[in-house]
Task: inverse folding
């Protein structure tokens, strides 16, 4: 028996197949993973992501702490509520986690992964000792993500007028409080939508109201294929402590100039020596499914492996992320002793319901 | 509810076999198997006229979750394959015992059918696996 989110009963009632996910009993699908995936791309769906870890960083030293902790520059957050995606590195430049941090004046709200919870809290608290700020894990909350082309309209239909007003003022990648609710125009699907962090006691009501509007609950299975189509990394699969953001398609989230942060020296060294690997997109239009750990070859020589792969319901063929050495030539992936031709592309694969990948 | 039709025989590897009136044997995967696999996205079937061994590899099912080998429950020669699965693999999920069949073969030894599991024994095996 794992931990249960405030919405667990709702999932069971909706016929979810429950699986263990990092110690949490979470819905993997409610019948058809592909049906759920398509619903988000074409209409709207809602996700219970209350298993994620929320950390409040408060006090005058918060900004200085985050400047040191994050490879991205917290100084970019000049507007209230604005969100920043960043890697958090160890001193060797390895990715401890990827996260989103929202600014709220001097204070910040950080959302980190569930599997990395203990490691992250330990690391952040230790670094915080030399700064004038407090690090507190938020308790008793839920997170509901509503995503899809009709997501914002349907949310506005069910929430109070004051919440609606907040949503209307938000720009993409910005969040704002309405009482104890925090609403953000963020997500992990490549579609429009919001993520609402709210007290656990309020979560069931919102979930039920959305259900009454016909919003389909979406399991973690479709969440994974949606994020992969959107070209978004999954921590633990596409990157971890053994690799740097420079070989994880995250270089654009690293700010080296006028920014001292943990891991910087290691990244500088890697840049000087030459970055030999890269995380790329792969597309296979033939039959079959690219999956994690399948080896990738260039002109018959192994050059790396797939880190995440799946059948893309939107594109109707398989797509993958793979870490390979920088090389020119014909790429193949070995699937059950057969070499299948794949094409290297620049992710994302899908945005707002449409194919967007660029051939290299 | 997962179904275990009484008129079918099952392999431990989750394929079903049905003896037809003309003596041929139709093969597919069980309702339990399709449910465990999740949405099926590709099915790789053997070529017509291929000779298959009982328990030998006969194809692959790719679902959203995993790639799984399909084994022939009995030995024989492939007579016909279900071409509909190429464009509509989801039929395997929707009707595993009906339109979602995989291939039909001429058995080389129809006694082999009797060594497969009866419906109730297969159901027990599945329940043990789940618990």
Result:
């Amino acid at each position: 028996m794992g931990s249960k989110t405030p919405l667990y009963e709702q999932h069971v009632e909706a016929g979810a197949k429950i699986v263990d996910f990092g110690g949490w009993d979470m819905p993997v699908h409610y019948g058809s993973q592909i049906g759920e995936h398509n619903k988000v791309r074409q209409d709207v769906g809602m996700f219970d992501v209350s298993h994620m870890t929320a950390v409040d960083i408060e006090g005058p030293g918060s900004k200085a702490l985050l400047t040191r902790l994050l490879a991205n520059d917290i100084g970019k957050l000049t507007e209230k509520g604005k969100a920043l995606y960043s890697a958090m590195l160890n001193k060797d430049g390895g990715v401890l986690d990827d996260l989103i941090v929202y600014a709220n004046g001097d204070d910040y709200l950080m959302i980190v992964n569930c599997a990395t919870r203990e490691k992250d809290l330990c690391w952040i608290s230790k670094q915080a000792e030399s700064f004038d700020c407090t690090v507190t894990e938020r308790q008793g909350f839920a997170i509901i993500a509503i995503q899809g082309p009709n997501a914002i309209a349907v949310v506005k239909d069910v929430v109070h007028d004051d919440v609606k007003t907040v949503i209307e003022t938000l720009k993409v990648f910005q969040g704002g409080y309405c009482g104890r609710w925090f609403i953000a125009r963020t997500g992990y699907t490549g579609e429009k939508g919001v993520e609402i962090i709210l007290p656990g006691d309020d979560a069931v009501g919102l979930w039920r109201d959305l259900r009454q509007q016909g919003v389909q609950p979406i399991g973690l299975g479709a969440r994974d294929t949606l994020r992969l189509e959107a070209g978004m990394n999954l921590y633990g699969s596409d990157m971890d402590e053994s690799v740097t953001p420079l070989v994880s398609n995250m270089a654009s989230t690293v700010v080296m100039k006028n920014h001292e942060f943990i891991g910087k020296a290691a990244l500088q060294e890697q840049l000087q020596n030459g970055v030999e690997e890269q995380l790329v997109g792969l597309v296979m239009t033939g039959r079959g499914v690219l999956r994690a750990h399948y080896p990738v070859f260039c002109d018959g020589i192994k050059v790396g492996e797939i880190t995440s792969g799946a059948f893309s319901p939107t594109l109707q063929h398989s797509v993958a992320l793979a870490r390979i050495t920088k090389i020119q030539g014909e790429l193949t992936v070995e699937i059950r002793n057969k070499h299948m031709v794949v094409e290297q592309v620049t992710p994302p694969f899908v945005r707002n319901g449409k194919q967007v990948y660029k051939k290299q | 509810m997962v179904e275990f039709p009484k008129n079918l025989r099952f392999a431990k590897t989750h394929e079903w076999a049905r003896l037809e009136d003309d003596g041929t044997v139709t093969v597919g995967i069980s309702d339990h198997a399709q449910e465990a696999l999740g949405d099926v996205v590709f099915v790789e079937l053997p070529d017509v006229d291929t000779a298959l061994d009982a328990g030998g590899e006969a194809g692959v099912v790719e679902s959203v979750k995993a790639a799984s080998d399909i084994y022939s429950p009995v030995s024989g020669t492939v007579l016909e394959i279900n071409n509909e699965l190429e464009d509509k693999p989801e039929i395997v999920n929707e009707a595993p015992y009906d339109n979602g069949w995989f291939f039909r073969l001429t058995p080389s030894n129809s006694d082999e059918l009797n060594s497969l599991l009866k419906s109730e024994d297969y159901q027990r095996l599945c329940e043990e696996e789940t618990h």
In short: The domain at 9-109+117-130 of chain B is CATH 2.40.50.100 (OB fold (Dihydrolipoamide Acetyltransferase, E2P)). Helices of chain B lie at 31-37, 84-87, 91-94, 119-130. The two ends of chain B are 16 Å apart (CA to CA). Chain B has four helices and ten strands.
